[in-house]
Amino acid sequence: MTSGGKALDSSRPVRSDDSFDVDRVHSWLRRQIPDLPDSAPEVGQFPGGASNLTYSLTYPEQDLILRRPPAGTKARSAHDMVREFEVQQRLRPSFPLAPKVLALCTDSEVLGDDFYVMERIPGTILRRDPPADLSLTTEAARTLSEATADTLIKLHQVDVDGAGLTSLGRGPGYVHRQITGWSDRYRAAQTENVPDFHTVMSWLSANEPADVGACLIHGDFRLDNLVLDPDTFEIIGVLDWELATVGDPLMDLGNSMAYWVQADDDPGMQLARRQPTHLPGMLTRDEFVQRYCDAMQLPTDNWLFYEAYGLFRIAVIVQQIYYRYHHGQTQNPAFAEFWRYSQYLEQRCRGLLGV
Q1: Would you say domain 138-353 falls under CATH 3.90.1200.10?
Q2: Strand partners for 124
Q3: What does the buried/exposed string (b/e) look like for 186-219 if buried means 16 or more CB atoms within 10 Å of the residue's CB?
Q4: Do 332 and 45 touch, CB atoms closer than 8 A?
Q5: Domain 16-119, CATH number (from 3.90.180.10, 3.30.2000.10, 3.60.15.10, 3.30.200.20)
Q6: Which of 5, 253, 279, 315 would suit a FRET pair with 304, their CA atoms being 20 to 30 Å apart?
């Protein structure tokens, strides 16, 4: 299960439409971190993620990460750099897997948007398939998938009040707010080449369960947001806290399982797979849900709702991204076919619900 220290996650050249004034950012950053060298860093862009943008800032003695919003129309509640920064800053003492944030900029003259800089956690990030120089055995896959479930459990057991994160929550009614909010966001981002999701949204609205509790939820907990030690596969970091809030734990589990493509899923799911959860040894969705719910002492009898919600939510996120591409607000070619995924997810939801 070792890698010989290889397969560290690495950045690529910055896409032209995502570039920024490196010298200006460096000048600002030196005022926040005085021991940085005089010369500007080498800048790269990480390929993962389709929402907030992530860059590497490589100095001779230090590697940093910069996070900023994408260009174009943004959902009102999304891409809040101040919030994302503060969540990690407050959470890290009780959940050390959160990155150490270093500096927050709210001066639009520097980069054009709010942004923040944090320490880089060097390690392996599993995207669609493991790197060629990693051998993920059946035993290692089992251990990793169990550790993934256990990490989500640990996050959901964080003392929200003690971490100073109570203000993230809006009280009871989280499930209802999510169904209403994601439905509104889909309607706002709909283009002429995707379905209206009316049947799915109506079913979700008519079958909303009461909240089963409230905890700190990540909102996008997936393997490609986890940093692994490249030699042991131990989880050493949890990234991308853009959607973190206080809410219903089973809704967060539904979010995660919507990305958890297993070996026997249909070709549409396999095509959309973005993490190697299909490999031999990986927990199935049912096994993951059971392990989680046993530990959290939560029921599984209404899982269909959370499963359908998770898939619908992905459809909304995908459509919001495609909307920006469709209207020329980003030129990233990776987004050109996202409308097809919206179509597939509507069919999968309706098949799952029998509507």
Answers
A1: yes
A2: 228
A3: beebbeeebbebeebbebbeeeeeebbebbbbbb
A4: no
A5: 3.30.200.20
A6: 279
